[in-house]
Amino acid sequence: MEAIELIEIINRGEDTQHQFKENFTNADSLAAEMTALSNSHGGEILIGVNDRGEIVGLSSHDIKRLNQLISNTASQCIKNAINPKTENVSIGDKVVMVVTILKGTDKPYMDNKGNIWVKSGSDKRKVTSREEMRRFFQESDIINADKVPVEGSTINDIDIRYFEQFFQRNYGKDLNQIEISLFQLLENMNLAKNGQLNLAGLLLFGKTPQWKKPEFIVKAVSFYGNDPTTIHYRDSEDISGNLKYMFDTTISFLTRNLHKLQNDKGFNSLGDIEISRETLDELVVNMLIHRDYFISAPWRIFIFDNRIEIISPGRLPNNLTVENIKAGISTIRNPVIASFATKELPYRGLGTGILRALKYYPDIDFINDCENNQFICSLRRKECDGL
Q: Which of 191, 208, 325, 332 has the maximum number of C-beta atoms within 10 A of its C-beta?
């Protein structure tokens, strides 16, 4: 790093990716700063700069001691170990050590006390909520939300008739032909464990999943105009039930609230829906399957005069970007739900759903809203003459 570049960073002040420290003598405080950057977006610690942005510099003794402290802290005081880069930059007669920490690929990183730190603006904070911890473990493929047991659930929460029909249709056998108990069968199918249904079992085959998980509903509203804060709407529905029912009902809500276009159809034809059914199917099924189930929030469908917003809790997982998914790259966040969705929903699990949605309706904006932890599909509606 050149001195002029370092001076520009210092003049801009501390932010999420740049931390100023006059010095370090304690491995615990250094580990906290390093894990916070690793668990967030990476960044740089400038040692030899105080929190007022004044360059105080480091002695040659400080530099030697800090290099040893940083090396020991990175390898011995952080789990999993990280590999920081150090660089000494001279500004006049003073030296500043720049410690570069890359964004971690094996999150969550913890200090010796088991604390998980993340950046919060220019400061850091300790992760304490169970949901946020679970999301970190999910990113590391240590835990999947759809495999987590649902507290208080039992075999009585299964819609037996629906499950029997599913089993017969997909495996060609009646349940009474199976020589093991129903609950053992559910465990073998990764839908239950230790006497309880997991989230996948409840959402796929539960009689009334929202009794146990009321937050997992679709809130659908068709507004007048383009303002979501208005109190006036054309249509509204809270959609609950198992995933198949929520898919069918959400599609029904969309199709009844969108325009029908005559195109080249005859006078007695019902016409074509303004946005292709193929696109709606792909986006709704992706909304249901790929959301972050560690977030206690509903799905939302907003229909405005100029757009439709399909909003799913949770930003894109891991290192996925909007450009990735538009290129057909995908990550399966909820593997059990996804495996059953190939049998119950118009879903193939090949990572091509977004490509198909765009093929049939190109006017879609995908917004990976990291700040609000949500993913938005915004479909621009075309003006319809006379409507």
A: 191
Cα distances (angstroms) measured from residue 247 to each of 3, 183, 233, 282: 57, 26, 22, 11
**In the chain, how many H helices and how many E strands?**
13, 18
CA dihedral 280, 286, 288, 292 (to 10 degrees): -140
Pairing status of strand 123-126 against strand 117-120: antiparallel
**Helix or strand or coil: residue 226?**
coil
Are 365 and 323 within 8 A, CB to CB?
no
Contact 26, 73 (CB under 8 A): no
Name the token pair of 271.
């016409």
Domain spans of the chain, in order of start: 3-128, 146-207, 218-380
Q: Cα(221)–Cα(226) distance, rounded to whole angstroms?
A: 12
Sign of CA dihedral 130, 135, 140, 141: positive
Please give the CATH number for the structural domain made up of 3-128.
Answer: 3.30.950.30
- C-alpha to C-alpha distance for 301 and 309, rounded to whole angstroms: 6
Q: One fold for both 3-128 and 218-380?
A: no
Phi/psi of residue 339, each to 5°? Answer: -65, -35
Dihedral, CA atoms, 237, 295, 41, 13, nearest 10 degrees?
80
Single-letter residue type at 235: D
Give the model confidence (pLDDT) of 107-151 as tens digits: 888 998 889 999 988 899 988 877 777 777 666 656 788 999 999
Please report, to the nearest 10 degrees, the dihedral formed by the alpha carbons of residues 76, 78, 82, 87 taken in order. Answer: -80
CATH architecture of 218-380: 2-Layer Sandwich (3.30)
Enumerate the β-bridge partners of residue 118: 125
Q: What are the pLDDT digits (tens) for 193-237?
A: 988 999 999 999 999 999 999 999 999 999 999 998 888 899 999
What does the CA dihedral 363, 319, 316, 352 come to, rounded to 10 degrees? 50
Alpha helix positions (H), the chain: 3-12, 27-39, 60-76, 130-139, 160-171, 182-188, 199-205, 209-212, 243-257, 277-289, 322-326, 335-344, 353-360
